[in-house]
Amino acid sequence: MFKPTPSGLSLLFATLSTAACFAAEREVVIRVESTKPTVVVEKTTVAVESGKPPFEGKRPTVDVAILLDTSNSMDGLIGQAKSQLWTIVQQFAKAKKQGQTPILRVALLEYGNTRLPAAEGYIRQVVPLSDDLDKLSEALFGLTTSGGDEYCGQVIGEAVKRLDWSREPGGYKAIFIAGNEPFTQGSVDYKDTCKQAIGKGIIVNTIHCGSHGDGVEGMWQHGAKLAEGEFFNIDQDRAVVHVDCPQDKIIIKLNTELNSTYLWYGKAETRSYYSANQAAQDENAGSLGAPALAGRSVAKAGIAYNNANRDLVDTLAENKEALKQIKEEELPDELRSLPADKREAHVQKMAARRADIQSQINKLAAEREAYIAKERERLANNEKGDTFGDAVVQTIRGQLTKSGFENTEGASVKK
After folding, report:
1. How many CB atoms lie within 10 A of CB 346?
2. Number of structural domains the chain divides into
3. pTM of the complete model
């Protein structure tokens, strides 16, 4: 049997490693044949030159995992995340690569909650990477605090290995972990999992809920440095400043009209859930005040709020054959009542109506953004990095730019 010499294998791996310096992550399978001194590469992908590789699809990908400490005293952090979710979504909607707005998927994990199994490190994947932003909102509003023991290294490791991260070479992948205890707790070393993350192209950004000095001493800054991320310290109990805008009332009214353009499909209970949950998340945002609901409405008028594979308008925009592929019993009632040859026209009618409503909201959103900027200047309330949303928005602006996205500047998060 042929046994390749160490020098021969070293040369092979050196060649592959050199190629990897100019490429994104690639899957390579190597077979050493037993009858000949030949090494065969069975599967590989052509390397892409370094810099900012183009995305390989109709739209670039953005995958973000939010890891929240839900131990005692973290109610303020969860409140900030709820209040600023839709402003964060708006930020992603502004970014483009090669003229295309990214497909945004967000995951949510909680850690440090003693209601969770100790054997699993007090960690729970609440939502996998998903483009269903209403489901994410539902999950955020369902979080409660208790405990606990906060194992940052372990939850980062779980996010890296468990989530379905995109393999898109031109995409953006990031973890945002927020908490208040030392980064060093637990049996899993944060240094190992942070290195694993960046090894897979996943940036780790750390948000320490406490003083800057405590965050540095607790190794939150070091964890971010290891995974090429940003380190912030915030006051998790600081109330998010909302600015009441003259545009809010009109935007909220248009949001109700926007909801009427959705044609949810799937099994009857699934259609009912999508419709009810969209309304429920409007109510959740509204419970935080009119500015928060207006902010959600603006996000819903943007392309980042996309319900392809759930709503027929968004689905048909991406798949022209969708109506032929969906089972009759899974169509919304208003379509099943129409002849088959009239259904596409009805979907297109809803699409045109939605586009008109979105256009009206977006025009008002620009006016609203300008109003908020003036109010913040007048109130001298322009501090940065002091809430969860501030930290996330500041970070993604810079990191998206480094990843080759354009137009990443957006509105202030305090809405």
Report:
1. 16
2. 3
3. 0.82
